[in-house]
Amino acid sequence: MALINKFGFLLAAIGRGAAVFFGVLAVIGFVAGLRGIEGLDLLWIDLRRIPWMGSWFLPPVALVFFMHGIGSVGSRFRRTMVFVVAGAIGLVALENSWVVMGLQEAGRIQSSALPLSLLIVGSMVLIGISALNRPLKGKRVGLASVVVASLFAASFPWLQIQTLGQTDYRRPAAAIVVLGARTYADGKPSRALGDRVKTACRLYHDGLASQLIFSGGPGDGDIHETESMQNLAIELGVDPRHIVLDRKGLNTRATIDFVQALKVDGRVLYVSHDFHLPRIWLAARLSGIDVLTVPAETERPLPRRGSLLVRETAAYWYYLAQGLWS
Questions:
Q1: C-alpha span between 164 and 294 (Å, rounded)
Q2: C-alpha gyration radius of the chain
Q3: Model confidence over 98-131: pLDDT tens digits?
Q4: Vertex 193, ends 262 and 267: CA angle to 5°?
Q5: Half-sphere exposure (Cβ direction) of 188: Cα atoms closer than 13 Å
Q6: Does the predicted model carry a pTM greater than 0.85?
Q7: How would you class 76 by CB atoms within 10 Å of its CB: exposed for 0-12, middle for 13-18, buried for 19 or more?
Q8: If phi over 0 gives left and psi between -120 and 50 gives alpha, with beta otherwise, what is residue 46?
Q9: Per-residue pLDDT tens for 253-289?
């Protein structure tokens, strides 16, 4: 009996914590819409093919999920509403997964990762089960749900890296943007920078775009990151006339702003490592543009990858908060 009670407590905490987290995502999507930032709800769900579930659907989702996650136990009707809302979102997420897998099957995108939408489906199942199960009372459940919601928030950027970051959206475009990384004092690119430039050059030679935009900041020595990128690209057979340098690309947002100012006529492919791509997508979306991302092809794993993932998690939420409230 004690084991059953512990399992019930854990299930309630996970379901209610998931409700809190996805309630926050719903609020973020709605606030973004009010500020004229379209499509930020695509962080977790795509409602575009279901017109009657537009942005107006997000506030009720947040309200129902918050009541379930941090409110009182509630009536049977309230808990049934949670189940219905979770079920509706789960069905939409399942449709999203079907679309993504169809694109993979058709070869329009390349990815070995499962769609993030499938994880959303699983989360909605947990929320629904926690709503219909015998409700558990007490402050411990509420506190545990907040802890679980925090764990969801910490893991969400990592899940984006494992899904969006692993997906290759390459297709014909007007330009290819390469984001900078370390350049050593002797002017040689670091392994990370070399991976990105080599990947972009392969796209260029495959005829997917005729212009390369190299964006970065100062190197360790006199050679700027963009100069190092340009030198390597020329060595790899790129016509220098097809290269544009952004010497003020000190961060992802600055690169996005530079490319916007160029007014490139057509699609733009952004090349960087998988851990960086979700933040690129986020920064672009917050700036009101859509981008296609291509993960850099790596010959071997980068050193200190664990610390890079931790940094990207913090940077991801910082970019989101700054973009919404600045």
A1: 10
A2: 22
A3: 999 999 999 999 998 889 999 999 999 999 998 8
A4: 30
A5: 3
A6: yes
A7: exposed
A8: beta
A9: 999 999 999 999 999 999 999 999 999 999 999 998 8
Task: Give strand ranges (E) for the chain.
Answer: 175-179, 212-215, 243-246, 268-272, 292-295
CB 261 within 8 A of CB 185: no
Q: Strand locations in 185-314, DSSP E?
A: 212-215, 243-246, 268-272, 292-295
Per-residue three-class SS string for 11-73 = HHHHHHHHHHHHHHHHHHHHHHHHCCCCCHHHHCCCCCCCCCCCHHHHHHHHHHHHHHHHCCC
Give the 3-state secondary structure of residue 133.
coil
Helix (H) or strand (E) segment spanning residue 317: helix 305-325
Six-digit token pair at 159? 């899940």
- How many residues are given for the chain? 326
Dihedral class, residue 33 (left if φ above 0, else alpha if ψ from -120 to 50, else beta): alpha
Using CA atoms, how far residue 2 sits from 5, 6, 8, 302, in Å, is: 5, 6, 10, 46
Q: What's the CA gap between 93 and 61, in Å, rounded?
A: 14
Give the residue carrying structure tokens 């009657």.
52
For the CA atoms of 246, 252, 253, 255, the dihedral, rounded to the nearest 10 degrees, stands at: 20
